[in-house]
Specification:
It is built from 7 helices and 12 strands. By secondary structure, it is an alpha/beta fold. It folds into 2 domains: 6-187, Spore Coat Polysaccharide Biosynthesis Protein SpsA, Chain A, CATH 3.90.550; 193-272, no CATH class. Strands 1, 2, 3, 4, 5, 6, 7, 8, 9 and 12 form a 10-stranded mixed β-sheet that branches. Strands 10-11 form a two-stranded antiparallel sheet.
């Protein structure tokens, strides 16, 4: 199902003269994108002119994202694949600095965060990677409860000690000592609820594909019970109700996401057979 091609965008594109000056900070920042035109500029602005290398791996976006990216970097590559781990790893492999940092197209770095990272990259540390905390903004409110909180993962690491593992929810694995950054970065994943539903549709499809390829079979119990449990856990046990209506929408949409990934797994089994796997 994955259509895999890899090519570099023509560096002589029309808006190349608008790119920001290069920095001498020995850090590569990379991100992967696909139709993130609504948010990508905020992410690019927060790192442009700060790190010495900015790499973006896209999948032939059609929403204006490519034109925006070209204003900030000439290191834009096109890679068509449905494998998120593969896409992240390809961006990682393109980095040329010893330290790398990845961000998503709906995130941005604070000045405090950038000062702390610059100090680590230019100094001495026994750590091979650093966990970073993320603050989430949704429908005009910072989310401090439920399944979105706390939110942290490794983001800064030595390139030669890291590699990507997993499927749709791929994670960077780092060999060596892991530290924790004191500062945070920001995340605004959805412009509105319609954007959220579109994203859920795409991610549930990809997650169901991962389940199918790994011979994880559909069970009616999972489709019925897991969404209810997720809502109860996030809204009641993790006190998502304290985030008001945005918190309720998050928990309800998460429940819908869990339901749909099992529904799509059932659909794949009906279409392709239960034990054959999806052919690449």
């Amino acid at each position: 199902m994955a259509n895999k091609t890899f090519d570099k965008k023509d560096p002589g594109s029309p808006n190349s003269e608008l790119r920001t000056p290069n920095s001498t900070l020995p850090l590569s920042v990379y991100m992967i994108t696909y139709n993130n035109g609504a948010t990508i500029e905020g992410a690019l602005k927060s790192v442009a002119g700060w790190a010495s290398e900015l790499i973006v791996v896209d999948s032939h976006s059609i929403d204006g994202a490519i034109e925006t990216i070209q204003r900030y970097t000439d290191k834009l590559y096109q890679f068509d694949t449905t494998d998120m781990r593969e896409k992240y790893q390809s961006a990682h492999n393109l980095c040329s600095n010893p330290w790398v940092l990845f961000i998503d197209a709906d995130e941005w770095l604070t000045e405090e965060f950038k000062r702390e990272v610059a100090g680590i990259v230019t100094g001495e540390t026994p750590c091979s990677g650093f966990i970073a905390h993320r603050r989430n903004i949704y429908l005009g409110r910072e989310i401090r409860h439920g399944g979105w909180y706390p939110d942290y993962e490794i983001r800064l690491y030595r390139k030669d000690r890291g590699n990507w593992q997993g499927g749709i929810h791929a994670k960077i694995h780092v060999d060596g000592k892991i530290g924790t950054l004191k500062s945070h970065y920001m995340h605004a994943p959805y412009a509105d609820t319609a954007h959220q539903i579109r994203t859920i549709d795409r991610y549930s499809e990809a997650f169901a594909g991962d389940l199918y390829r790994s011979n994880r079979h559909f069970h009616l119990f999972n489709m019925l019970a897991r969404p209810v449990y997720r809502f109860f856990r996030d809204y009641i046990l993790k006190m998502g109700f304290l985030d008001g209506i945005p918190g309720l929408i998050i928990c309800a949409s998460t429940m819908y996401y869990v339901f749909m990934k099992h529904a799509k797994l059932w659909e794949m089994e009906k279409k392709y057979g239960r034990n054959k796997g999806i052919q690449e």
